[in-house]
Amino acid sequence: MKYFFLAYAIIAVLFIGLMPTRGAKSPNTPIRLFPDMDEQDKLKAQKPSDFFADGQGSRQPVAGTQALGLNATGALELGGIHDLEFGGGIGYYASGGIDGYFANGMPEELKLTADNVTAFLKRGEEVYGVNCAICHGKSGDGLGVTSNYGVPGIANLTQESWFPAAYPDGRLFYTISNGKGNMGGYKHNIALRDRWAVVAYIRALQTARKAPYDAVKDAYDKGIATQAK
Ligand code: HEC
């Protein structure tokens, strides 16, 4: 027993003696039993690298590609998509609200004219088709593919409760941007202008749904005919 205590004391002293002082600086490489991710094979921005033949760590963009947010000449303009186009900004165009109230109407920043409004709606159709139709259905009726797999409570956007009188354009824009309940927001995925295009397209879907059969007879019958094929 006598030796046990002696051995115990010696081991304890050795152990403590060997422990590095926490926080002490040393030029030596530390002994690391668990290196975690201290050393990584990675390139740091602006640092040289002998991995590439030209000795440069940072790479040039692949020829013929264009960075998101820049146009072909490297300027920050639409065509690439301006950062601000995803959020930031104030006013009706960026928020859907005026003085704290949701408003109706297309913002003037869209510079809509009789000439470009058709292309704008087409764009809305495209963006809606990519992002929304999977849940809300191609026609907005809420019966998209996911409804077959049990996603509950998908809004039927062709119902009166989503018409402008009850649910202003600005609110629709806000919902697309920030989401609602089980639906995520799209402000980081769909550019501002495109979100307004979706608003406009949903209005077109609603108007189409309201139209009396006589008014849309030709298009309707043609649609049914192509679906039957
Ligand atoms: C993953 C499925 C899904 C996708 C994709 C989706 N939604 Fe929804 N959406 C929902 C669900 C679920 C609700 C019901 C949310 C709730 O009330 O909890 C909803 C609700 C809504 C509402 C009504 C919100 C309210 O105030 O009650 C609108 C408007 C809407 N979506 C528009 C869109 C638009 C436009 C897109 C495309 C940009 C889109 N949604 C994409 C699932 C989706």
Q: The CATH topology of the domain at 83-224 is what?
A: Cytochrome Bc1 Complex, Chain D, domain 2
User: What proportion strand?
Assistant: under 5%
What ligand molecules are bound, each kind once?
heme C
Radius of gyration: 30 Å
Helix content: 25-40%
CATH architecture verdict of the domain at 83-224: Orthogonal Bundle
Cα shape:
elongated
Main sheet summary: 2 strands, antiparallel
Mean pLDDT: 86
Distance between the termini: 95 Å
- Which parts are unreliable, with pLDDT below 50 for 5 consecutive residues or more? none
> Element order, helices and strands?
HHEEHHHHH
Structure described in brief:
With 229 residues, the protein is mainly α. Helix content is 37%, strand content 2%. Strands 1-2 form a two-stranded antiparallel ribbon.
